[in-house]
Structures are given as C-alpha cells and as structure tokens.
Amino acid sequence: MRARLALAVSGQTCEVREVVLKNKPQGLLQASPKATVPVLVLPGGQVLEQSLHIMLWALAQHDPDGWRTPSHGSMEDMLALIAECDGPFKQALDRCKYPSRYPDAPIDAARAQAMAWLSALDARLFTQPHLFGSHAALADMAIAPFVRQFAGIDADWWAAQPWPHLQAWLAQWQAAPLLASVMHKLPAWVDGTEGVRFPHPQGIWAPEGCDGNPTAPLLGGQVERRVRSR
C-alpha cells in the first residue's frame, strides 16, 4: 500500500499487475527471483524489492507534498522511526494478527510490545498533527498502513485505548482521498496479459489503453502487483 501511495502522489504512471501469491506467475519470478512483493523494475532494469525503497525512488522523481522534507526533524530521523516500525513493531503486529503462525510466541508479550510503541507515537502526536511536524511526510505514509493493520485486529479494542492523538491521526489518514485512490481491488494478473493503468487520471482503475507506453514495471501487493512507471 505505501509504495502505491508514493507512486500516486509523485505522479508516476504505472502498469499494475496483481498476482495471487499462491500461484506466482513467471513475470514475477523473472523480475525478482526471491518472488516477494512489491517489486519495481525501473526503465534501466534496476529492481527495487522493498516498499520503502520504492517510496524513496518515487519521491526522488517528484515530491509535490514535501514528504521528504518534514517541518521538524530530518530524513534520517524519519528513516529511524520507520525502521522501528518495520522491525520490532511489524514483528509484534504479525504475532498479534496471525497468532496461529507463531504458536511459540506469547500473544500478550507481542501486544504489550506493540502497545508500548504505539503509546510513544501518541505522545509524539500530542504537540503536532503529524509525526514530524505540521504536514504529513514520509514517516506518516510509511507507518500508517501498519498502524491501520493493528487497529483492524479488533476495532472496539482499538477505540477503547487511551491514544486520542494517534487515533485521530489514523482516522485522518484513512479519510484522505489519496488512500481511497489506491485501494481499488484489481483482478489477478495472468502472464501474457496487460495490467492496469495506475494512477488513473480520473482516480479510478482502468485497463491500460493507447494513451502511453509504460517503461518500468512494479510488482507488489497481497496479490502480486506489477507496475511500470514511465
């Protein structure tokens, strides 16, 4: 999701190819032998295999909303907080969301670990509307999807937690038109067929037509997504 957000806000035109990961197509395996998603194949053949790397590449092309330049702190500060999210918090999230996959990991310990980190985010948001100041930046967009996943495990439990600033921050992010513009469901892609133009000029998904020839592929998502950016 976060790769799509950065591609959309930066105005990169892509071809998205959603694939069922239980039946990985040759197109994904050829682009990235490790066959994880998302994957972005750039026009020169360079392959980006991490969603954060895709975000950074897209924003380096065009950053109209200043995601790389927070009003407080630096890019290094944002990357450090994102690393906490992608590491310890994501590990705790997975153990809370999929306890059957981790039978030897106590769910109470994982929940406590996640709660401690989320409490720190709530405290950070006490004095500012976004994680690094007055406007949404890379850290907000990279971290919010994972906080959303945690909140979705039990919506009633989430609403009952003493995190008013974090809850308001997440609600604002979820209500933003940008998120809605990248959340459309796509049909599973089959080798040899065209993908879907992303983002669509009218904010809807449509098969790619005669209005351009994308030159760089992205593959990613829960089903696989292949995107070509031009």
List key phrases describing it:
3-stranded antiparallel β-sheet, mainly alpha, 230 residues, Glutathione S-transferase Yfyf (Class Pi), Chain A, domain 2, single chain, disordered C terminus
Can you give a write-up of this model?
The protein is mainly α and 230 residues long. The chain has two domains: 2-66 and 184-227, no CATH class; 75-179, Glutathione S-transferase Yfyf (Class Pi), Chain A, domain 2, CATH 1.20.1050. 46% of the residues lie in helices and 7% in strands. The protein contains nine helices and seven strands. It has helices spanning 2-9, 26-31, 51-61, 75-97, 107-124, 138-153, 155-160, 164-175, 177-182, and strands spanning 14-16, 39-41, 47-48, 196-198, 206-207, 218-219, 226-227. The chain has a three-stranded antiparallel β-sheet with strand order 1-4-5, with no helix packed on it. A hairpin with a 7-residue loop joins strand 4 (196-198) and strand 5 (206-207). Helix 1 runs antiparallel to helix 6, helix 4 (75-97) runs parallel beside helix 6 and helix 5 packs across helix 8 (164-175). The two termini are 20 Å apart. Residues 202-217 and 219-230 have low confidence and may be disordered.
Shape: globular
Distance linking N and C termini: 20 Å
Into which percent range does the helicity of residues fall? 40-55%
Relative strand content: 5-15%
What oligomeric state do these chains adopt? single chain
Low-confidence stretches: 202-217, 219-230
Number of helices: 9
Give the ordered list of helices and strands: HEHEEHHHHHHHEEEE
Give the radius of gyration: 18 Å
Overall structural domain count: 2
Instruction: List how many beta strands DSSP finds.
Output: 7
Largest sheet: 3 strands, antiparallel
